[in-house]
Write a structure and sequence with these properties.
heterodimer; A: 430 residues; Rossmann fold; 3 domains; six-stranded mixed sheet; five-stranded mixed sheet; globular; B: 282 residues; mainly alpha; 11 helices
Chain lengths: 430, 282
């Protein structure tokens, strides 16, 4: 089998600090002021006054010496935390941005789906946007024409195809956008998290379509935070951490490694400044801990005892409508539960608006909750319908030990992620 | 490097690597994406007058109103010399290419920043965006041109045989506009100051272009400097081809053409060399 993509020593550097203040959102005036201030700054630097490093250029290697090959017809998953460099890798592979070093050899046409609906214009009708978006994604007009009916059928918006898309509901809009994208037929398809849109039903349909694409023997690179999607669609995955490729393995192995790796301080996760995305303000995560009944930080909790989950964070400004909470999922990526600290209306009244400061949101996991195994703990801080400040779906992993749990006198594995102590009554009828 | 012999069908191989030195123009890539240029023009035209009451009439109203104001100030009050041509048609003939030029600068300089999601999410030759903006102005130009035809009939102006050069003059306008627009569009990605500079730039440029007055008021000594403005050559050419003035092709127009080409070529190279950082800096 031939190599579809060969990535050799690929690196991508972003300049932050100076880039952000001086160039990125740059105004000529600022540059002029900056130039004028240069002697002053030099003087301050020599005399040791002024803020050290406040204006220094920081280089971030979003990708650092990444090498791998992808054989034709492979569906490769790419996993890693937020900011690990996954999206940068896809951007380089789809030629949106140039690498700083290294070489990528790609055999075949690359179709990239880094976002659905790129180039959609709200004033144009569904029909017009299909043609426009097709052209934006690199489809020939004849190709779009040929697939037009199929696209419309897939999107389920037949009735509204001649209505401007600004009148569409957000669900309809996304369905149409994905439908166009899903009918691209390049030799290599690069997909970023686009499946995280729409309702559950449509997501299922999208995953099905992705599966079909893979069946046709095309090469697919697939980034997702949804581990069950990754497990379902890919046989092999690479794990990227801080711009480096740290593991390439069959998907299950890579996912297990990812979900449990990097937590040297067992039972605790502390966020470094460079792990936090830039736009989380006013929210800053500090740490996340799993504690046992006696308040000790542990990697393994006992299912027969209550345990505590603790999320420590800072608010730099008063925040309204805030909810901070947890996701819990299995190693296979299936969600077990989602819970927020202001789920109780009384709590929401009291803590929905929080002043700036340092907080801990803590919850107790009752005894007899989980079955044995390893679980991933994710965190989320958001204002419902307004903004998501911070999310990390795989912040920490912990084990559950079931000694003493119901049914453990039979040495067998029990199906299902929960293992509650249910009250059984046995009645002899007759 | 790949074992291409194993493949019956050989897909094209793309090398992605850091570009160094002067970037090749790679215009063949632009040709591959010609349909996208077409669709972007089509989108801009479709959207341009959506939800406006007067719709495409705006393409006519703008130059006509400007012509009326100019006629009042320069034709009636200041009585500028027009080589014996009625002032309304004298200025309107110049306002057509001038309008095309200004619209091109305005739309093209914003073309990248108003399509940020396309630039940061999809690969395509970035030249598509400013190019489509410039070419999209030709539709408004054509609509406004109908008024000129009506005026020529009304004022009984017979076009000269030189009218065959009109397409070339339009091309010259497009070349001049594209050259300047490429510079502005690329700079605008990094410095949004372009948005603020542009209204002044076009206003001053209008004064330096013989739209409201005749180029003959400039003394001979300054003609060569004056013709460094590519639009001076364009406007003189339009009047020559349509109204029969004696401002036809001469050394000065050659200077205008040369300058336009210099703008276009340097603009293309500058744009291409900045293109690699567009997605990161926009």
């Amino acid at each position: 089998m031939a190599t579809a993509i060969r990535v050799e020593h690929l690196s991508k550097r972003y300049r932050i600090g100076a880039t952000q203040t001086k160039f990125r959102y740059g105004m000529l005036r600022e540059v002029l002021v900056d130039v004028a201030m240069t002697p002053v700054r030099a003087f301050k630097a020599i005399t040791g006054r002024g803020m050290r490093g406040a204006n220094s250029v920081t280089n971030i290697w979003a990708l650092n010496d990444v090498s791998f090959d992808v054989q034709e017809g492979t569906v490769l998953g790419i996993i890693g935390r937020n900011g690990a460099g996954k999206s940068t890798l896809l951007k380089v592979l789809s030629r949106v941005t140039e690498p700083t070093k290294g070489l990528v050899t790609v055999r075949g046409r690359v179709g990239s789906l880094l976002e659905v609906g790129t180039g959609f214009h709200p004033e144009l009708t569904g029909r017009e946007n299909i043609y426009l978006n097709g052209a934006v994604l690199g489809m020939k007009r004849s190709e779009t024409e040929r697939k037009f009916d199929e696209i419309v059928a897939f999107s389920e918006v037949e009735q509204f195809i001649d209505t401007p898309v600004k009148r569409y509901s957000s669900g309809m809009y996304l369905r149409l956008a994905f439908a166009v994208a899903a009918h691209l037929e390049p030799e290599i398809l690069v997909v970023d998290e686009v499946l995280a849109v729409g309702d559950a039903e449509f997501q299922k349909k999208c995953l099905g379509k992705m599966g079909d694409v893979a069946q046709q023997g095309r090469t697919v690179l697939f980034v997702s935070h949804n581990m069950s999607a990754i497990l379902r669609l890919t046989q092999e995955a690479i794990l990227i951490e801080k711009g480096r490729l740290v593991k390439r393995a069959p998907t299950q192995e890579a996912v297990d490694y990812y979900l449990s790796a990097g937590h040297s301080e067992a039972g605790e996760r502390i966020w470094d400044a460079d792990e936090i995305p830039v736009n989380t303000a006013p929210f800053t995560p500090i740490s996340l801990r799993v504690k046992d009944r006696r308040g000790k930080v542990v990697d393994t909790i006992r299912s027969t005892e209550p345990s505590t989950l603790e999320f420590e964070y800072k608010l730099s400004a008063p925040t309204t409508g805030l909810r901070v909470g947890f996701y819990l999922s299995t190693m296979r990526g299936e969600y077990v539960l989602t819970s927020f600290d202001t789920d109780e209306p009384v709590q929401f009244e009291k803590f929905g608006s929080r002043t700036a400061g340092h907080y801990i949101s803590r919850c107790t996991i009752p005894a007899d909750m989980f079955n044995e195994g390893r679980y991933a703990l994710g965190v989320n801080a958001s204002s419902f319908g307004v903004r998501r400040y911070f999310m990390d779906e795989n912040a920490l992993a912990f084990n559950v030990d079931i000694s003493g749990a119901p049914g453990t006198h039979w040495p067998e594995q029990r199906a299902g992620p929960i293992r509650p102590r249910l009250e059984w009554k046995i009645e002899k009828v007759e | 490097m790949a074992k291409s012999t194993e493949l019956v069908r050989q897909p094209e191989t793309i090398y992605i690597k850091p570009s160094t030195g002067l970037t090749a123009l790679n215009l063949s890539d632009l040709w591959v994406y010609r349909e996208l240029v077409y669709f972007m023009i089509w989108r801009d035209i479709k959207v341009r007058y959506k939800q406006t009451f007067l719709g495409a009439a705006w393409a006519v109203i703008q130059p006509v109103l400007t012509m009326l104001v100019f006629n009042f100030i320069f034709g009636t009050i200041a009585k500028v010399p027009t080589d014996g041509i009625p002032y309304p048609i004298f200025s309107y003939t110049a306002l057509l290419p001038w309008g095309l030029f200004v619209a091109a600068l305005n739309n093209a300089s914003r073309s990248l920043t108003s399509n940020t999601s396309m630039v940061t999410k999809i690969y395509f030759p970035r030249l598509v965006l400013p190019l489509a903006s410039v070419l999209g102005g030709l539709v408004d130009f054509a609509i406004a041109f109908l008024i000129l035809i009506a005026m020529m009939i009304y004022y009984k102006v017979t076009p000269t045989l030189a009218i065959w050069t009109l397409p070339l003059l339009i091309l010259l306008t497009v070349v001049a506009a594209s050259g300047v627009a490429l510079w502005l569009a690329a700079i605008n990605v990094q410095y949004r100051d372009v948005n603020y500079v542009l209204p002044f730039l076009t206003q001053f440029w209008l004064f330096l272009t013989p739209v409201a007055y005749s180029a003959k008021v400039i003394s001979d000594k300054w003609q060569i400097v004056y013709s460094l403005n590519p639009m001076a050559g364009v406007v003189n050419g339009f009047r020559w081809a349509l109204l029969g003035t004696d401002t036809g092709p001469n050394l000065y127009m050659a200077v205008s053409v040369g300058i336009s080409l210099i703008f276009l070529i340097t603009g293309l190279f500058y744009f291409r060399s900045m293109e690699r950082t567009f997605a990161d800096t926009i």
